[in-house]
Amino acid sequence: MGTDKRYDGYRSFDYLKATRDFREFDLLDGESLFEPYLVPLDSRGEKRVHELAQRLVMISLHEHPHLFPKRASEIPDYDSEARVSTAYEALADSWWDCVFDNFQDGACFITSKSGWKWEDVIYDMGMRLCDLAHQDFIIKAEKVEDIHRAHRDGRLALVCAQEGAAMIENELDRIEILYGIGLRVLGITYSESNALGTGLKETGDGGLTSFGRRAVARMNEVGIAIDCAHSSDQTTLDTVECSKHPIFLTHTGARGLWNIRRLASDDCIRAVAGKGGVIGIEAAPHTTVTANHPRHDIEGFMEHFEYVKDLVGIDHVAFGPDTLYGDHVGLHQVSAETLSIGDSHKPRDGSEAPEYERVDYVKGIENPTEGSKNILRWLVANDYSDDHIAKVLGGNILRVLDEVWQ
Ligand SMILES: [Zn+2]
Questions:
Q1: pLDDT at residue 332, as a whole number
Q2: Exposure class string for 332-358: b at 16+ Cβ within 10 A, else e
Q3: Does residue 116 form part of some domain?
Q4: How far is the CA of 345 from the centre of ligand 1 (A)?
Q5: Hey, which end of the chain has fewer CB within 10 Å, N or C?
């Protein structure tokens, strides 16, 4: 039921009055700043795509499905208000049945300009979840059955996720508090190191700390899935080894194709897959570039998908495009430091960063709606079987969640 969703017109914070109760921003709502693009198909392909979109459970392993200000210069003020609008209408037009929502991540600046504070994360999640509680199109997914229910009922399942665990500081019990609020995926680190382990931007690599090992055990016991997409190589390898369950790299690509720290090494991809885990392919601007596609677009993104599939098999790859409704390149510019954009785009081995063409947006996969349609269209255009499409668009993720969430 990815198409024809049951959306009733609710918009974020409809239960309050804008200006009187909160500061209003000029959000990118229903329009696109960029040229839309659809992967072309013949009439047989069109028919097959629509039949698959209806039948399959389609899951995005990593998004920020929010409305952003039209002007990127307003993003820091918008973020610090902690009143982020969920893109209900645009998501109703997407083919995703389930999105993993990663909230404001490193741009959560409510009491701090550096991000990842406990109070700020609670404020961000609490406010968004209050808004979600006032509507019935999006289901807050806390069990695997919630995802199947959303698919059956023409709704959208939203999984609460956080990209790094800096906010738990040295408090293991905060893992349970986050679970209680609804969190179901937690990253070990964001790009900088924290009490759990080393982040991907660091030049040294100490791997998972002893506190990190205790945190992994607690996440396993509580039933939170683990994400190492922003962790260092050694932290990822240590986490795979010490976790009782498979883990995710929710949004990454292959360093074997494009040599930057932000993407995963072959060793890490093999280790995660070897434990039964899943690697989600990333589409944030200037990440999944390749030598064949130095101008970032859906073709380069899919080249990373095929590389990972060829390396570890169709059962261990999925999509975590990491897109949003707004100016993603503009966001990277205004929050370059807290999102670690510069460091994460350098090679780990200290060599020169590879040359690529700067883009204003990623053609074909610019936001969650366009991405949901074009990923499926690309797979059909490239003759993937129904069985393989079902695995990479949801089945592989559900297999891991069935084990981790219990
Ligand atoms: Zn990220």
A1: 87
A2: bebbeebbbbebbbbebeeeeeeebee
A3: yes
A4: 13
A5: C
As a whole number of angstroms, the distance between CA 361 and CA 229 comes to: 22
Block residue for tokens 């009187």: 20
Q: Which domain holds residue 262?
A: 43-404
Q: Assign residue 259 the CATH number of its domain.
A: 3.20.20.140
- Along the chain (406 residues), what's the average pLDDT of each consecutive run of 10 residues? 85 96 91 91 98 98 96 91 95 97 88 91 96 98 98 97 98 98 98 97 96 98 98 98 98 96 97 98 96 96 98 98 93 78 78 85 96 98 98 98 95
Distance 252 CA to ligand 1 centre (A): 8
**16 in any annotated domain:** no
Residue 84's nearest CA partner among 392, 331, 299 is 331
Residue 211 lies in a domain: yes
230 Cα to the center of ligand 1, angstroms: 7
Q: How many domains does the chain divide into?
A: 1
1 assigned to some structural domain: no
